[in-house]
Design a protein that fits this description.
The complex is a heterodimer.
Chain A lengths: L3 E4 L2 E4 L5 E7 L5 E8 L3 E10 L2 E4 L7 E6 L2 E6 L8 E8 L9 E2 L3 E5 L1
Parallel strand pairs in A: 2-11
Antiparallel strand pairs in A: 1-3, 3-8, 4-5, 4-9, 5-6, 7-8, 9-10, 9-11
Chain B lengths: L3 E3 L4 E4 L4 E7 L4 E9 L6 E6 L4 E3 L2 E6 L4 E6 L8 E9 L6 E4 L3 E6 L1
Parallel strand pairs in B: 2-11
Antiparallel strand pairs in B: 1-3, 3-8, 4-5, 4-9, 6-7, 7-8, 9-10, 9-11
Classes of the chains: A mainly beta, B mainly beta.
Chain lengths: 114, 112
Amino acid sequence: DADVTQTPRNRITKTGKRIMLECSQTKGHDRMYWYRQDPGLGLRLIYYSFDVKDINKGEISDGYSVSRQAQAKFSLSLESAIPNQTALYFCATSDSGLGRTEAFFGQGTRLTVV
Amino acid sequence: RKEVEQDPGPFNVPEGATVAFNCTYSNSASQSFFWYRQDCRKEPKLLMSVYSSGNEDGRFTAQLNRASQYISLLIRDSKLSDSATYLCVVWGYGGSQGNLIFGKGTKLSVKP
């Protein structure tokens, strides 16, 4: 089993619908992240969480919300999906050690908003 | 200025070639540096960390120049399997509040 698991892997949804992307990890890491990737724009940080009680906005948080249900679970919600939220979404984890902080990624969720 | 900037690419090289990627970062407080590899439609995976003294892992050599805020990755004797997008990643404090910041990536295509 993957250390970082994202569900669903693919999703097509209609404009205006609410959708939740889920992420769970078995790495035991404190830090969890949500990124989106668009062609030509690279990975951009949406939200990040340093522990269950510490959630922070990233570079592009508008239109998104998150919930850290437990150390191992971090979900991303689109309250009212719009077409420009069509992208590849990645969840990642890292430990809290300073420096040398490798991030481990889930396999991604390909979201299409029509 | 973008926090992490990379050569736009794509780099199209023949097998056996040596290819170098460059990256600059804007936050002088950055603490750690990495190269990640991303295959098409897959998740990024750590290729190697970049240490101040430079480091080598087989055919791959990474260099860091803190004074110039510059990172490089050299791939020798390119293989077909090296075809991927290479992401320069910086971790540090300041505006990014201790997070990993990714460059947009440089695409490498190794041809037979």
